[in-house]
Fold each of these.
Amino acid sequence: MVARCEVGGPDCSDADPADGPARRQRHAPDLTAVRFPDDGQRQSLEMFKMYDWFPMVFFPFKIIVLGTGMFFAIKWHHDQAKKEKAKKNDEASGL
């Protein structure tokens, strides 16, 4: 087992002083073993987990809504142009 060395931590006793900070930076801290002193910090960590899924849900929803709106806006303008063209043809044939 590799000893985790933190500044001032109990596992630094076997660290070679010549290694310096390089030995401390070699191993990433184990974030799953973090203990929170109160429940408020745990809730704030869970809030950050919630924000991870929000873009994956919101952006596809946004693209679908805006795409649908653009489709109907183009369709409406196309239909209006078709109505005007038909109206002009009716007026021209009636003269």
Note: The chain has a mean pLDDT of 74.
Amino acid sequence: MATGQAASAHLERAVCASDGGGRMTAWLKLVPTWAYLVLGLVLAVGVQQVRVMSAQSDASKAQADLSDYRAEVSERDRRAAMAVIQENQRRQAATEKADAEAQEQLAAARTDAERAGSALERLQQRLAAAEQRSRDAGNAITAQLGQAAEDAARVRADVFGRVGEAAQLYARVADERGVAGAACERAYDAVKGN
């Protein structure tokens, strides 16, 4: 009870002070020290809680930004991959088209070579028929001259046949290489995008 009387006396002195500031100081003196410590601790915890909530907000915003960035990069990569696939398909189609055209040209060149070969054969047949007519004529002078002429004609026919075969070979090789070179150029231009 003595402490209760001392507290009330202390309270009376605080109330009887002359100004309002003194009353406040008196009030503060009535609150025990441990209450100030608890109040300080509550304020510190509150400040920390605000900081934690702010950090959590910043972290969730950063996660959302990272997620958006990843989605953007993923979409950009998908588009780039699709562009590469489309470009490869375009190049493949251009190459196949150039190859098909080359095959058509090569077939036409082979047909021309076959026609030239058959023309050579017809010419050789005419030469052989002319020789046969000369032999069939049967007079003595023609027979003596015919023997020499026949030998010369055989040599001519042989040389002519060999020249024709060589010409066919060179023409076929030249046509094949020419067609292949032109096809290669067209394929390159198509792949390059010209």
Note: Helices lie at 2-15, 20-30, 33-136, 140-192.
Amino acid sequence: MLTTAGEALASSSGDRPWYQWVALVLVAMLLSSGFAYFRAWRRFTAATLGTALLFTVAVWFNAGTATTTWTVIYALWAALLLYFLIRQPHRRVLRDVEHPSLGRIQLLVREPVGPALPVGRALVVGVLAAALTAGALAGLRTIPQGQLEDADAAQRSGDCASAVGTYATAGSDIHEFTLSPAPDRARAGGNGCAATLRAEQAAKRGDHETAAEAYWAATRVFERRIGRTAPRLAELRLAYGDEMAADLRDETNYAPSQVGNYSAIIDAYRSIVTDTPGSPQAELVPARIDALYANAAADSATQPCAASSRISHLAQIEKEREPGAAPSSKAGENLAMVQYRCGKKQFDDKDYQAARTTLEEVTEKGASGPYAKKAANLLIDVNVADAAQGSAGALPPPAAKGTAPAGTTELVITNDSTESLEVLYSGPERGSSSVGACTGCTTRSPDTPLGNLFTGCSPAAETATIRLKPGTYTVVVKGAGGSKVRPYSGKWALKSGTSYSSCFYVSTSRY
């Protein structure tokens, strides 16, 4: 009958080897049998109870994990019993004794109990009992060892559903009094098999994070116990890498540590090639490595921000760590495209701060790439929209001052302030223009006549001329860089063949 993973985990306590408790008592009686041979029943009972208690303490302290120490303890106990077997017991009794000067008095004296035992014979019987006990313990040690070997064989073949119960039986604490190391090893093997079964169950229900964690635990146990070159380990490592990749694909929120997860995936795949180069799993590794980019780029059209995080982290992998194909190169080549898509989505969602951060990263990293220009233009839209919805003041329309070539419109921006200004515009065209600070101008105060916004600029004021396609533009004028000057925003309808002029100054307020 086949055993399912769920049934195996539910019954992982295994069969209780009750017979070992019976064996414990029988071995204790065997070590004490010298007293029974000489019909010293009280000492036989005491020795049996003492030995059984010692064995129970050994079970309690997992003596199989400290075999040398407990072997010494057992030897000392056997020597003590041999001493009491050879030594004739005495008792203290009151006897009437004739004293030369005191007359008849009572004294407490030691008298032997029963006839004296022949020392040589008692020694032979005691040593023989100890030898038979050692042989019995050695025989009992083979029981958990055989169970361990059967469970290991099942695990190597991938049948953890059967192995987990056998591991539990072999790992029962009662085996510890035999000083066998098998129970401790069986408990470790059972933990590894239980982790494998949990991983398989989690993978079936799509819980990739739990599956990856369980496969990681299973591979660590397998490596320590069975070795790194077993074909079964290659299967576990491949499953571990696959579940980690699937988990990363499902993630939508990322931290810098995620790049470490991609490294762990690649390390898991590489270890298959290194330790089991001829295995079927090793032949799958190059395709799995190649698939990491497709995994990272999954849903890049519909969920570009999640995909851009994955691709960004994948692009940081050191290329020399990638056997065969190098998905980090492909990730680096396509990162700007996906980040641009992410910035566009953030802009559409009116998350201007996030969009600005994303798009600035594109312009900084891919200054010469095709998406750098797109990102720069969209960044203008972001800044314009952000200023327009924020605390920007209302920007009056410019004054028409002359003519411009047919099919074009012209803006002449004059900066009558000590601050460098930046003009952003979005409409039929997008762009920005900087107007340098006027070194001979002053910042106006409440006590200074304001004058007209569009006239009265100093002859020393700086100017910039912008030629555009005619149409309606959203224009933002703000201080350049980290300036604290309040931005102004407005919509300007610019006609074909017309030149417009605007003069700007900076003033302070009493409030």
Note: The chain has 16 helices and eleven strands.
